[in-house]
Amino acid sequence: MRVLSEWRAPDAGQERVRREFLRHLEEHAADGMWRACAAGHITASTAVLDASRTRVLLTLHAKVKAWLQLGGHCEPGDATLAGAALREATEESGIAGLRLLPEPVQLDRHAVRCHPQGSWHLDVQYAAIAPEGARYTVSDESDDLGWFPVTDLPEPTDDPVRRLVARAVSLPG
Fold first, then answer.
1. Predicted confidence band of residue 16 (pLDDT cuts 50, 70, 90)
2. Contact 127, 49 (CB under 8 A)
3. What is the per-residue DSSP string for 18-87?
């Protein structure tokens, strides 16, 4: 609640999504953060940029079969959303020493199959900078990982990923 309450959305569309996420957490105070919440749940993801900020590390998601940012579900041991985003990015990339930028970059709500009837990921998206010369390791959650020029993302990907990468590249820090 604190992160979403304090975050300044970059535009009116993101402000609407921010309010939807807050409303979801108010309506599902006991479980809105967790995968068990069939109505939807908060997730955390990260656009990992190389040290020069000219390339982004994307995963060919094993279930979705599209190139996406790294991320996933919050776990009880995660003290913060930023911590969840960094944990997921580190686990899925195998890269130690990622430097997470402190504020979310954007929010994205998308349908998923976490429950038989369907559900929603309410994704809080961050950006991280990889150390110079970072090398990734493909995890079990990915069919592949790859560095791609930020101006030439692979197919298939989607508009939310393109917006996330464009916003991440433009951030200070």
1. very high
2. yes
3. HHHHHHHHHHTTTTTTSTT-TT-EEEEEEEEEPTTSSEEEEEEETTT-SEE-EEEE--TT-SSHHHHHHH
Distance CA 170, CA 166 (A): 7
The class level of CATH for 2-170 reads alpha beta
- Please provide residue 70's backbone torsions phi and psi, each rounded to the nearest 5 degrees: -80, 145
Band of pLDDT at residue 116, cut at 50, 70 and 90: confident
Closest residue by Cα to residue 31 from 84, 82, 73: 73
pTM: 0.95
**Given the structure tokens 């592949």, which residue do they identify?**
144
pLDDT of 96 > 90? The answer is yes
